[in-house]
Amino acid sequence: MTEMAQRPGNSFDGLGIAPKILGALDRMKFTVPTPIQHKAIPIAIEHKDLIGVAQTGTGKTLAFAIPVIQRLAQQQGRCLVLVPTRELALQVNEVFQQIAPLFGIKTAVIIGGASMHLQLKALRTNPRILVATPGRLVDHMERRTVVLSDVNVLILDEADRMLDMGFLPDIRRILKRIPRNRQTMLFSATIPPEVMSIASAHMKLPVHIEVAPSGTAAERIVQELFIVSKAAKKQLLTKILNCYRGPVLLFSRTKRGAAILNHLLRNKGYSSAEIHSDRSLGQRRQALEGFKAGRYRILVATDIAARGIDVTGIELVINYDLPDDTEHYVHRIGRTGRAGHEGRAISFATPEQGKDVRNIEKLIKTALPIAEHPEFPQEKFIQYTKPQGGFGRGGRKGAKRKYRIRP
């Protein structure tokens, strides 16, 4: 069953939300539901399985937090929310914490890199909402310090990213411990075939809500592409940064690249920090909180952080390196233009990356406007032609590929 998005309603009234939660939303200044909230909340409140497809920054977390809290306030049971990264787990928990305490519902965050002692202490308080990354949750399962037999609501948030990060074996182990008679909700910006296979095996006739086609980039984001030689990228980066004054999220393909860029920026006098999987949880939290507070204007990140940075007001996202996975482009640029704000995304591509750019354009169903900088030579993509000759046609093995410059 598929329901395409319509315009959101004028308020949260009429969605089946309990008066006490409506009052909390009023106090939080949430007055108009986003499209995903308007569509998902009534279905989730009816305890139906749900697949929600929506671009990042559209309010997916509140779309499942409201029905979960309302259900737990009415009946026994617990909710498990699985997320791919530590940062996303902390942010999901923050949303729950805005409403759950009103009903005496406790939450716990189960993530790697954090104190196991503190997590055990939190688990002893009988939290009814667990927000966890799969790896650390499996650790607790092996230690028998967490029980999942009373989980009656399961949320898989950013499931595609969890699969990208290799969590499928852990997710399968977790699913075996959760009662089959449960409500399952899956939310993500993209739904590749691998995610759909999990949904079909572990969900009961899910209602499919798509408020934007899978892979659609945010409408309020201005996108630009610079074709630049690898040697000139650092110089172009500083020129672009000097044209903006607001917060900038800068994506590097590798952890080492992120560290090098952060070092370069600091040496040039920019206030910057780095966030990637080689940093400890404390270092990552310090960088993210410093970015939110304005202590750092630039946050250099790898794709592991693309789903965990929920910061309103990021003026510019720069893809210093194009992502390895084309779909990550959508998640990266979705960090800007959030909550109705306008945003801008600038990507660097080397002349050899024409194919990568075309794959991105195919995904987002639009061409990336090519920008030029007056101080840098205009580059063009190299277009490779088929090798001359071939087997069975007088060719020879190992013939070199020739190329020409695309006009």
Can you walk me through this structure?
- This protein has 2 domains: 2-210, P-loop containing nucleotide triphosphate hydrolases (Rossmann fold, 3-Layer(aba) Sandwich), CATH 3.40.50.300; 221-384, P-loop containing nucleotide triphosphate hydrolases (Rossmann fold, 3-Layer(aba) Sandwich).
- It contains 14 helices and 17 strands.
- It starts with a strand and ends with a strand.
- Helix content is 35%, strand content 18%.
- Residues 1-8 and 390-407 have low confidence and may be disordered.
- Strands 1-8-2-7-6-3-5-4 form an 8-stranded parallel beta sheet. Strands 11-12-10-13-14-9-15 form a 7-stranded parallel beta sheet, with helices on both faces. A two-stranded antiparallel sheet has the order 16-17.
- Helix 2 runs parallel beside helix 3 and helix 6 crosses helix 8 (168-177).
- With 407 residues, the chain is an alpha/beta fold.
- It is globular.
Helix and strand arrangement:
Elements: E1 2-4, H1 19-27, H2 35-45, E2 50-53, H3 60-74, E3 78-82, H4 86-97, E4 107-110, H5 116-123, E5 129-132, H6 134-143, E6 151-157, H7 159-164, H8 168-177, E7 183-188, H9 193-202, E8 207-210, E9 221-227, H10 233-241, E10 248-251, H11 255-267, E11 272-275, H12 281-293, E12 298-301, E13 316-319, H13 328-333, E14 343-349, H14 354-364, E15 370-371, E16 382-384, E17 403-405
Parallel strand pairs: 1-8, 2-7, 2-8, 3-5, 3-6, 4-5, 6-7, 9-14, 9-15, 10-12, 10-13, 11-12, 13-14
Antiparallel strand pairs: 16-17
Helix pairs in contact: 2-3, 6-8
